[in-house]
Amino acid sequence: MKITNRTMIIVFFVIIVLGLLFAFRENLKWRIVAWYLGMPQPQYSVEVERDIMIPMSDGINLAADIYRPDAQGPFPVIVTRTPYNKSNPFHKYEFAGRMFASQGFVFVVQDVRGKYKSEGEYYPYINEASDGFDTIEWAGTRSWSSGKVGTYGFSYYGSTQWLASASGSKYLKAMVPIVTSQNVYPRWIYNGIYRINDILVWHYENALREARPGENVDWDRAVKHLPLIEADDVLGEDIPFYNDWIFHPVPDAYWERISVDDKISRITVPALLIGGWYDYYLDLMFADFIRMQQEAGSPEARRSQIIIGPWTHVTTSKFEDVDFGKQAGFMQQIGTILDWYRYWLKGEAVYNFSLGPVRIFVMGKNEWRTEKQWPLRRAFNVKFYLHSSGKANSVPDDGLLSPKIPCNESFDNFVYDPADPVPSIGGTSIYGSAKPGPCDQREVERRDDVLVYTSEPLEEDLELTGEAKVVLFASSSAKDTDFSAKLVDVYPDGNAINLKAAVIRARFRESLANPVFLEKDKVYQFEINIGAISNVFKAGHKIRLQISSSNFPEFGRNLNTGAPIGMTSQMEKAHQRIYHDADQPSYLLVPMILSPN
């Protein structure tokens, strides 16, 4: 076929028109995104460079994609370092890159060492401090860089921020660590208890250079396998760093290498911490925030802020059993994140510090509120004592929560069988077959090994915001066992929604460093720290406390034998007693708020 000049002109014209339409569509898309998220309208179109190899100090090269404004610059830089593939659509790196670049930032997203297109061998967390420092130094010295670098990221790629933050790069000026913490040990191993569902699934899916999906794995069978040290073998692979974690159940030098919570004075840049009420990092993030405010190494770093929403670890706010309203979504925070970077990296006075450093979503009331500190000084602790006639696990409404101090009451008892643990319904675990977040608890409350204590219906709204805990007088037939607690909001229709769960391992009741076993049937006082909460129990609702000895597989089972954790499959039943009388008054301690501010 003969191609005429006229045909070539028409083809050229069509290509130009299509290009303009595509550009217009992309421009319109980002204008709509900016409007919806409450951000300034985009200033730049975006150029993308793929698979740029960034040299580390030991000669290893790490692959990065770079999103840059289509202009001369220079521009401040935002760095994200991830083990989950810089091209992964689930983690929305492309969205973040184009969004930040359109607003006048260079966005660098990098595969961490040993992952995807980066060179080297992968081992969780261990290289992130040095590689993060090298990457920030590189980003701060490019021709398109203004020399001011921020970091951004969720979970593991939030940890990469903290681990690099204490290394002292002069180019690092601000951080946004989301659903993460300065110390990863207590995220994975809670009070000496393996979060076995998350540990096992995460290691299996992420052990190799490229992630492998676990859709066809029988996770329920896998997480039940004993001993824990062999659970990865059941999945068909012996994972070295999974084994290392099982060999190190308590904090030691192994974990200290990947922690910065004892290096806060070295951190001189401010952090905008963002977390969720249904995220397993929640209490760790509040601790990080308090340390930053009190111990950070510069006045700027001590201006760190924290935002907590009604989210799970993956920042979900939509749930079957609870509706938190239109303002609950995580995406509404993008404008705040952008303002944080504009303030610290561009010097634009757009971030409002005057309202206070703590912004929380108050569940139940379902609204955002800003506070001056955490915990709230105006909160005062109220005790709700446990009461029953000894049948809190068998007779509906026998277990009572009341401000009245108990007198002579029978203890409650139950048998904890590790072979048949109380199943986790809702909560913080996100992996495998877990269903995270707020869920109706009535299924587990029908079990004989779950004690249920419930208040009378509230006559008016009651806000609990702050730190909650349970003081429990209990005994066991076992030399080691667990006691679990779960705080629940009971609706007038009977729907029982979990707010927060906690577990204590008896051998670690005094400290993780010096385990002490129990004497058979001796009564001990246990403090179970439920931790941070913010919820308005509406008029007509009830406050409920569940007491048991398991919450599996969110928390690993205690086999009740006292054997080394993770190394045995032998188990035995434990006969548990919970006391609530004048001499042994078990109670729930909650932070009550009388006025909103």
Task: Please provide a written account of the structure.
With 597 residues, the protein is an alpha+beta fold. It folds into three domains: 37-184 and 263-318 and 325-362, Rossmann fold; 187-247, no CATH class; 380-593, Jelly Rolls, CATH 2.60.120.260. The chain has 13 helices and 23 strands. The strands form five sheets. Strands 13, 14, 15, 17, 20, 22 and 23 form a seven-stranded antiparallel β-sheet that branches. Helix 3 (128-140) packs across helix 4. The termini are far apart.
Which helices and strands, and how do they pair?
Layout: H1 5-36, E1 46-55, E2 61-69, E3 75-82, H2 93-102, E4 106-111, H3 128-140, E5 145-154, H4 156-165, E6 172-178, H5 185-188, E7 189-190, E8 193-194, H6 196-206, H7 219-224, H8 231-234, H9 240-247, H10 253-256, E9 272-278, H11 282-295, E10 305-312, H12 334-346, E11 358-362, E12 367-371, E13 380-387, E14 400-402, E15 412-416, H13 442-445, E16 451-454, E17 462-476, E18 482-490, E19 496-505, E20 524-537, E21 542-548, E22 574-579, E23 587-593
Helix pairs in contact: 3-4
Keywords summarizing the entry:
single chain, 597 residues, alpha+beta, Rossmann fold, Jelly Rolls, 13 helices, globular
Quick recap:
It contains 13 helices and 23 strands. It has helices at 5-36, 93-102, 128-140, 156-165, 185-188, 196-206, 219-224, 231-234, 240-247, 253-256, 282-295, 334-346, 442-445, and strands at residues 46-55, 61-69, 75-82, 106-111, 145-154, 172-178, 189-190, 193-194, 272-278, 305-312, 358-362, 367-371, 380-387, 400-402, 412-416, 451-454, 462-476, 482-490, 496-505, 524-537, 542-548, 574-579, 587-593.
